[in-house]
């Protein structure tokens, strides 16, 4: 994530396409973007979008959408792009968040995934979606995907126990055994176990590989 698309990425993509392996994209080290670089939500979205576009330029250069593998471009709204922190064991695609909000919005998961990316803005007061945004509107990806993650990170890293305990309850995260002891400490050790339980990387990567 911090390096964007490097030369090695291009080499691996070219090789994969030549060997008829359909590419998926995983944007790693998201924890660094939040903790070290302290990127704002909109900046983080723009970074992600730029990486997706750059990867698709490479895929278009070496791939053939009319070939036997069909469309090769990666697309967050189709679940072929993942985000997370591999080292900390947490990850997600837009599908996980669309499933969380589907009943609230009464929108099918695949349709909601499309609203959680690109220029789709939502106003909590108007309860409306818009393509152009404007006052009171916030990008869907920032509001419904990044905001909950930012809140969890902030509460835990600032050791605000009341705040993070309320968030854990809301997200139905129940820590067991040794992990429970970390509830008293807050900080990075707690953040790792909470994120891993909330958004387990193994499940997400397996789904991405199996489906695509």
From TrEMBL:
GO terms, molecular function: GTP binding; GTPase activity; ribosome binding; translation elongation factor activity
Keywords annotated in UniProt: Cytoplasm, Elongation factor, Protein biosynthesis
One cellular component term from this protein's GO annotations in UniProt: ribonucleoprotein complex
Domain Tr-type G: 4-96
Keyword Lyase set for record: no
Parts forming coiled coils: none
Keyword Membrane in record: no
Domain of life: Eukaryota
Protein name in UniProt: Tr-type G domain-containing protein
């Amino acid at each position: 994530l911090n390096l964007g698309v490097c030369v090695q990425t291009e080499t691996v993509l070219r090789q994969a396409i030549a060997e008829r392996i359909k590419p998926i994209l995983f944007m790693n080290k998201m924890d660094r973007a939040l903790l070290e670089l302290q990127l704002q939500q909109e900046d983080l979205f723009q970074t992600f979008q730029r990486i997706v576009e750059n990867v698709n330029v490479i895929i278009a250069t070496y791939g053939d959408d009319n070939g036997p593998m069909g469309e090769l471009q990666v697309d967050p709204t189709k679940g072929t792009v993942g985000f997370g922190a591999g080292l900390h064991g947490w990850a997600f695609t837009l599908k996980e968040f669309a499933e969380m909000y589907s009943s609230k919005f009464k929108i099918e998961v695949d349709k909601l995934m499309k609203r959680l990316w690109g220029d789709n803005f939502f106003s909590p007061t108007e309860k409306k979606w818009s393509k152009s945004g404007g006052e009171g509107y916030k990008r869907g990806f920032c509001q419904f995907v990044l905001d909950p993650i930012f809140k969890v990170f902030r509460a835990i890293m600032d050791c605000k126990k009341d705040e993070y305990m309320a968030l854990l309850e809301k997200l139905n995260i129940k820590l067991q055994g040794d992990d429970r002891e970390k509830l008293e400490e807050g900080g990075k050790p707690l953040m790792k176990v909470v994120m891993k339980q909330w958004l387990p990387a193994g499940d997400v990567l397996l789904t991405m590989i199996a489906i695509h």
